[in-house]
């Protein structure tokens, strides 16, 4: 029996010797114990998580010569997610991490402690440190019955990176806060000015990114379903959990997309949040989104106090009802930071009332009081009774809305935020005269409503009819004119397009050109569309719009994008196209990573398709057309990467008898 044991031991030893000599260039260990330390010299050992996702060891960031103990993605060693001795660098490669007296300790060449885990509990009989697959570096009792009970864990001391499963928030028993702090620079991981933390006021949480004391971005408060300033689509890739119990209050991100391989949120030294993702087929990180998403409405208080930011608005910033720009001069040149002030101060008089600002990200939590038990009606009454109350809203959108928030100071960082099903409205207190002018206007509106309704829908039809007539007139006299030359283009109601694109929601935006923004949408029939909304101040006037409609309505070819219809209503001019899921050609040509995705066969297929489309335009169609703006972004790709030429705003028609033509305007590409 004894012999058998010895034999087994011998074989195991030989096997492990063979195995380790194979891997001799990278000496990996699985645990750190009082007798097994991690060294930056000699074997230069590293610790690897069981599934090979993360690696812990010594590194030098960027151009720095200093040595730090950190954790990185094994597949991307330059992506460091945690640093132990951020503020206490080692100046040479003689560092050693070991377990001593129940603590993790980092020693320098003179065996002085540079960093340690600072666990006071003297419970660790035989402590062992290991790196988990989540990226959590933990110290625990070797024989512990509960494998999830840690003496110490790196997740409690985040650096600049939020990994899935990390808590951002508070231990309510000890008052200990876990939050993200940026590096000073790419070469220096010491604690910088940027922070990303959970701010809780009156039991209402929101996440805030700041640089020093200055706020850069906030998610808006938790409204029971989401953070009021965050849109739903993010939730497809991961889930945000908000947990509040007697011990903890925190948020945590949970991966819901098993294929998004690895992803994390990082706070850059300049205070920008980025959610990066590495697909298992690609070799480089891609930015899923940034926080703030855009430098406009998402940026903290972009419009200043008492103003609302509407990303599709023109202008983008507007004072709330009852307010006027603090500086007309500033407002005129489209800089907004000074915000708005009340036209007339509130007198706390009888007859004051409220105006609803629908579907917004609620103002920041300054000078605010809350009561989670009140209904909206009670909230209104309470606000009206209190002379200092300037605005109110429901704090929770679930179950038809509940809870009461009352603001008594300036209203800061409001933006439009249409999120179907969980819109949050804000009610602004107005003076007696302001209320009176609203009710007068409402009365007038009622009288006019029938008239204007018939006028607008009439205008839409009339516009198209007018083009039909001009078209016919222009073509009159041409021989062989047949009936099918009539414009037969459906018109869409503005309301339909608004509903389809989620009120031109920025999340639906799929492109922006010189002439306006393009939105993805879905009609109630389920058909996907791309709506090109011409901005009023764009160069493309009615002239180009008509041109595009005229030209493309006449053309039908599988390599030309199909126009489904148009909408002309009030100031709006919108073209509705079939939706192209594979975006435009420039995304593939000019993106170094993507251009390798498409095989050569597909490239050739696309080139041939474009040529076919051009041949049709130049020669085979009834009209002869020069596109004049042919470029990658105007070649759209459908499901099968079949190319479709789009954007006929600048196209020019040649008459049959014209062999040559001159243009006075410089246009297009
Ligand atoms: C090691 O750390 C101690 C204490 O911080 C310090 O005094 C000493 O100079 C360090 N030694 C080296 C070689 O950096
Ligand atoms: C260690 O922890 C104690 C109590 O938690 C704290 O007072 C002390 O400042 C910590 N020491 C270091 C070096 O972080
Ligand atoms: C990559 O992802 C696909 C799913 O998209 C999965 O089936 C495959 O196993 C993954 N490959 C690796 C190497 O993880």
Name some characteristics of this structure.
single chain, 669 residues, alpha+beta, Agglutinin, subunit A, 4 domains, five-stranded antiparallel sheet, 8 helices, 31% strand, binds 2-acetamido-2-deoxy-beta-D-glucopyranose
List strands and helices in order, with pairings.
Elements lengths: L1 H21 L5 E2 L8 E2 L6 E3 L5 E6 L8 E6 L6 E4 L12 E5 L2 E5 L5 E4 L10 E5 L5 E5 L10 E2 L7 E2 L5 E4 L4 E3 L1 E6 L2 E14 L2 E8 L2 E5 L19 E7 L3 E8 L6 E6 L5 E6 L7 E6 L15 E3 L7 E3 L3 E3 L2 H5 L7 E3 L10 E5 L2 E2 L6 E4 L4 H10 L5 E3 L10 E4 L6 E3 L9 E5 L1 H44 L18 H7 L8 E5 L2 E7 L5 E7 L7 H12 L9 E7 L2 E7 L7 H4 L10 H21 L3 E3 L8 E3 L5 E3 L6 E3 L15
Parallel strand pairs: 1-3, 25-34
Antiparallel strand pairs: 2-7, 3-4, 4-5, 5-6, 7-8, 8-9, 10-11, 11-12, 13-22, 14-15, 14-21, 16-17, 17-18, 18-19, 20-21, 22-23, 23-24, 25-26, 27-28, 29-35, 30-34, 31-33, 32-33, 32-35, 36-37, 37-38, 38-40, 39-40, 41-44, 42-43
The structure holds 2-acetamido-2-deoxy-beta-D-glucopyranose (3 copies).
The site of one 2-acetamido-2-deoxy-beta-D-glucopyranose has 6 residues, from loops.
């Amino acid at each position: 029996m004894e012999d058998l044991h010895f034999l087994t031991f011998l074989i195991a030893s030989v096997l492990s010797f063979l195995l380790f000599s194979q891997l001799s260039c990278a000496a990996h260990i699985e645990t750190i114990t009082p007798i097994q330390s991690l060294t930056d010299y000699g074997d230069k050992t590293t610790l690897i998580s069981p599934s090979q996702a993360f690696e812990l060891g010594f590194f030098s960031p960027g151009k720095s010569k200093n040595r730090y103990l950190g954790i990185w993605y094994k597949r991307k060693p330059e992506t460091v997610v945690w640093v132990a001795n951020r503020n206490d660098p080692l100046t040479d490669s003689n560092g050693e991490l070991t377990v001593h007296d129940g603590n993790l300790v980092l020693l320098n060449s003179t065996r002085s402690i540079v960093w340690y885990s600072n666990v006071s509990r003297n419970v660790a009989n035989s402590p062992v440190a290991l790196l988990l697959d989540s990226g959590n570096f933990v110290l625990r009792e070797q024989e512990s019955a509960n494998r999830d009970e840690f003496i110490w864990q790196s997740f409690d001391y985040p650096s600049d990176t939020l990994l899935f499963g990390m808590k951002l928030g508070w231990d309510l028993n000890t008052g200990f806060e876990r939050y993200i702090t940026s590096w000073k620079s790419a070469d220096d991981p010491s604690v910088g000015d940027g922070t990303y933390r959970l701010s809780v006021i009156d039991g209402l949480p929101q996440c805030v990114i700041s640089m020093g004391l200055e706020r850069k971005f906030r998610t808006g408060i938790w409204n029971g379903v989401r953070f009021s300033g965050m849109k739903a689509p993010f939730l497809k890739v991961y889930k945000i959990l908000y947990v509040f119990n007697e011990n903890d209050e925190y948020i945590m991100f949970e991966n819901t997309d098993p294929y998004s391989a690895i992803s994390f949120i990082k706070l850059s030294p300049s205070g920008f949040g980025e959610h990066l993702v590495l697909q298992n087929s690609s070799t480089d990180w891609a930015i899923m989104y940034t926080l703030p998403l855009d430098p406009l409405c998402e940026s903290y208080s972009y419009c200043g106090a008492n103003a609302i930011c509407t990303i599709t608005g023109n202008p983008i910033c507007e004072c709330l009802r009852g307010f006027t720009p603090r500086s007309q001069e500033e407002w005129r040149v489209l800089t907004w930071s000074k915000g708005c002030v009340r036209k007339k101060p509130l007198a706390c008089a009888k007859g004051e009332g409220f105006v609803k600002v629908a579907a917004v990200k609620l103002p920041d939590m300054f000078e605010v009081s809350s009561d989670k038990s009140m209904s909206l009606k009670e909230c209104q009454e309470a606000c009206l009774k209190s002379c200092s109350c300037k605005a109110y809203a429901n704090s929770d959108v679930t179950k038809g809305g509940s809870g009461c928030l009352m603001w008594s100071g300036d209203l800061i960082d409001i933006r439009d935020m249409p999120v179907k099903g969980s819109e949050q409205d804000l009610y602004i207190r107005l003076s007696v005269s302001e209320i009176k002018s609203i009710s007068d206007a409402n009365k007038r509106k009622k009288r006019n409503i029938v008239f204007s309704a018939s006028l607008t829908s009439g205008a839409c039809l009339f516009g198209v009819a007018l083009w039909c007539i001009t078209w016919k007139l222009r073509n009159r006299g041409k021989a062989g004119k047949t009936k099918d030359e009539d414009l037969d283009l459906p018109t869409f109601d503005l309301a339909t397009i608004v509903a389809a694109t989620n009120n031109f929601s920025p999340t639906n935006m799929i492109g922006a050109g010189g002439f306006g923004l393009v939105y993805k949408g879905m009609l109630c029939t389920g058909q996907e569309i791309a709506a090109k909304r011409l901005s009023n101040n764009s160069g493309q006037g009615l002239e180009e719009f008509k041109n595009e409609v005229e030209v493309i309505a006449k053309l039908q070819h599988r390599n030309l994008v199909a126009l489904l219809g148009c909408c002309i209503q009030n100031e709006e001019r919108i073209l509705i196209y079939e939706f192209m899921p594979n975006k435009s050609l420039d995304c593939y040509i000019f993106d170094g990573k993507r251009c390798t995705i498409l095989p050569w066969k597909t490239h050739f297929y696309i080139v041939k398709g474009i040529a076919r489309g051009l041949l049709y335009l130049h020669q085979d169609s009834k009209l002869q057309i020069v596109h004049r703006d042919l470029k990658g972004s105007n070649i759209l790709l459908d499901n099968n990467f079949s190319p479709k030429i789009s954007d006929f705003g600048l196209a020019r028609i040649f008459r049959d008898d014209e062999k040559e033509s001159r243009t006075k305007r410089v246009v297009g590409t």
